[in-house]
Amino acid sequence: MRLRVFTDGGARGNPGPAGTGVVVKDSLDNTVYEYNEFIGVSTNNEAEYTAFLTALRWLHEQNQVNDVDGADFFLDSKLVVEQINKRWKIKEQRLLDLAKNCWQLISTLPYQVTIKHVGRSENTEADLLVNQALDEQKAGA
Fold first, then answer.
1. Looking at residue 134, which CATH number applies to its domain?
2. What is the rounded distance in angstroms from the CA atom of residue 6 to the CA atom of residue 58?
3. DSSP code of 69?
4. Is residue 9, in this structure, part of any structural domain at all?
5. What is each CA distance from 69 to 13, 29, 48, 119, in whole angstroms?
6. Does any domain span residue 119?
7. What phi, psi does 69 have (nearest 5°)?
8. How big is the chain by its Cα radius of gyration, in Å?
9. Is the CB of residue 52 less than 8 Å from the CB of residue 80?
10. Number of folded domains that form the chain
11. CB atoms within 10 A of CB 7
12. Structural domain containing residue 21
């Protein structure tokens, strides 16, 4: 089974209150995993990386129990896509540390991972989860 993984991160302010969203779909378009989290004060780019890392951690945990033979990631952050694919340099140390964590996890997966950029309109479910995490945090504050 090949999975489609949608991740998004966002901050209200830059830096500001930030959240992440992850949606994983199977080959029949069924949602097999959904997750969102308020991550505190962060930059938008850090939130995007954190969402991607969260999805990779989930894949790593599922490695032993699911019949997965590949994962295609879809992110609306061109920066993260280009940096993770090693086409753009990473100048900021915090982002480099996050990228190194991502690369390490990718290297442990026994199947191919692709990371592609999509427009926001193709990443609406993960985006909704980000906003839900931020709205719930705001309501509880």
1. 3.30.420.10
2. 13
3. -
4. yes
5. 38, 16, 25, 26
6. no
7. -120, 10
8. 14
9. yes
10. 1
11. 30
12. 2-27+43-114+129-140
Backbone angles phi, psi at 38, to 5 degrees: -80, 125
What is the full per-residue pLDDT of the chain (141 aa) written as tens digits? Answer: 899 999 999 999 999 999 999 999 999 999 999 999 999 999 999 999 999 999 999 999 987 667 889 999 999 999 999 999 999 999 999 999 999 999 999 999 999 999 999 999 999 999 999 999 999 988 876
| 23-31 long-range contacts, CB within 8 A, separation 24+ | 23/125, 23/126, 23/129, 24/55, 24/58, 26/1, 27/1, 27/2, 27/3, 31/125
15 occurs within a structural domain: yes
Residue 36 placed within a domain: no
| Prior bond of 15 cis (ω within 30°) | yes
Q: Encoding tokens for residue 51?
A: 């969402």
Helix (H) / strand (E) containing 134: helix 124-140
H-only helix segments in 11-123:
44-62, 78-84, 93-108
* C-alpha distance from residue 80 to each of 26, 44, 115, 136 (Å): 23, 11, 9, 26
Beta carbons of 10 and 126 less than 8 angstroms apart: no
Closest CA to 134 of 38, 46, 48: 38
CA dist 119 and 6 (Å) reads: 11
